[in-house]
Structures are given as structure tokens and as C-alpha cells.
Design brief:
Residues 116-159 form the RING-type domain. The protein has helices at residues 11-17, 141-149, 166-178, and strands at 29-31, 38-40, 55-57, 62-64, 71-73, 78-80, 87-90, 95-98, 130-131, 139-140. With 199 residues, it is α+β, with helices and mostly antiparallel strands.
């Protein structure tokens, strides 16, 4: 790695063992694990001709033998998994989204370039899948599931509902309607703002 001049088999191993993160695009050399030849980053070893990975992206310095339908997205600036045919790059959100969300999602400018509002970890380069609620703000799927388990049903960023809450609202409206108000509050009115529809 150019940052600390040590040899690691992957960037995750580096980041777990060092007090800083490696910028994979700064990597200019690699060492063949078969013959120990140090060389410039390339698809196969210049000495023993070993192919470094079934999937190779020289821009990201990524070599992978597992088939994950990897593809490089120029818009995201990184490799993604899942297949180019199943995703599209939204220029406003500045990230790849499932094709089923094309023209069916709320755009939030550069949404993936901010951290998860729950764990505060990076979303854009994370290996954890993200959840995309109706409001368009992103959070890791595991963080979303954790919120639901803890009884939190609102987006941590904008407080809109993360799920369809219409049945609960109906139930609560019915409860309020069935509860008589004390005489001193009978004519009392309060203005409220709905966090879902903003009215």
C-alpha cells in the first residue's frame, strides 16, 4: 500500500489493521501470491501468468474470483455487484439504484455520499445493502431492521414514516374519537403538522 508501504491481500485487511484507510485508486503495485513478484497493477502476473481474478477492474484495483455479477459504474466511481442490467445510475442521487425504482423514487441530491444516520458509517462504498424509504434518504438495511425492532418507525433524517402507517393512524384516530374530552378542553384546537405529507 502506498500509504504505509506494507503488503496486504485486500483493502479491508489493511483498514482493519491500520489506523487509516487505504485509497484503492492510489495503489500502483501488487505482489503475486503465487511467485512473489512485485509489479505494476495489471490483470495477470508478468512472471508466472497467473490471472489475479475472474473479475478484474484496473480502475478500482479490484480482483475477485467469486461471481457476483460485478460491474464498474463510472458515475459511482466504484464497482458494484448485482449486474449492470438490474441497476441504473441516477444522476441526481448520484448512485446506482434497482431498475424497478427508475422514475419511481424520490431523488435526493448526492444521497449516498452522506453517512448512514443510524451507525454513521459510509453508505456509498459499504458492502452492507442499503434500504431506500419513500422519503429517499438512505440507511443500511441492518440499521433499518434495528430501528423497527426497537420500535422506531420514522426516518432518522426527516422523521417521515419508514413504513405504511395508515392502519395505525386509523386506529389512533378511532381511539381519539372514542375518548371524551374533559369539558375545559372541549373547544380547544391545536394546529399540527404531519411529518409524512407536510400539511
Amino acid at each position: 500500500t502506498p500509504c504505509c508501504n506494507k503488503i496486504y491481500t485486500c483493502r479491508f485487511c489493511h483498514d482493519e489493521n491500520e489506523s487509516h484507510c487505504v485509497n484503492r485508486k492510489d495503489v500502483t503495485e501488487l505482489v503475486c501470491t503465487n511467485c512473489d513478484t512485485r509489479q505494476k497493477v495489471q490483470a495477470e502476473c508478468e512472471n508466472c501468468s497467473l490471472r489475479f481474478g475472474k473479475y478484474t477492474c484496473l480502475e478500482c484495483k479490484l480482483f475477485d474470483d467469486e461471481e457476483k455479477n460485478q460491474y464498474h459504474c463510472d458515475g459511482c466511481g466504484i464497482c458494484r455487484i448485482g449486474g449492470r442490467d438490474k441497476f441504473f445510475h441516477c444522476e441526481t442521487c448520484n448512485m446506482c439504484l434497482p431498475v424497478k425504482l427508475k422514475n419511481r423514487h424520490r431523488c435526493v441530491e448526492n444521497v449516498s455520499r452522506s453517512n448512514c444516520p443510524v451507525c454513521l458509517e459510509d453508505i456509498h462504498t459499504s458492502r452492507i445493502p442499503c434500504h431506500i424509504p419513500e422519503c429517499g434518504h438512505l440507511l443500511h438495511r441492518t440499521c433499518f431492521e434495528g430501528l423497527l425492532e426497537a420500535g422506531h418507525y420514522a426516518c432518522p433524517t426527516c422523521q417521515t414514516s419508514l413504513l405504511d402507517m395508515s392502519q395505525l393512524w386509523k386506529y389512533l384516530d378511532n381511539e381519539v374519537e372514542m375518548t371524551p374530552m374533559p369539558p375545559e378542553y372541549r373547544d380547544f384546537k391545536a394546529d399540527i403538522l404531519c411529518k409524512d405529507c407536510h400539511e
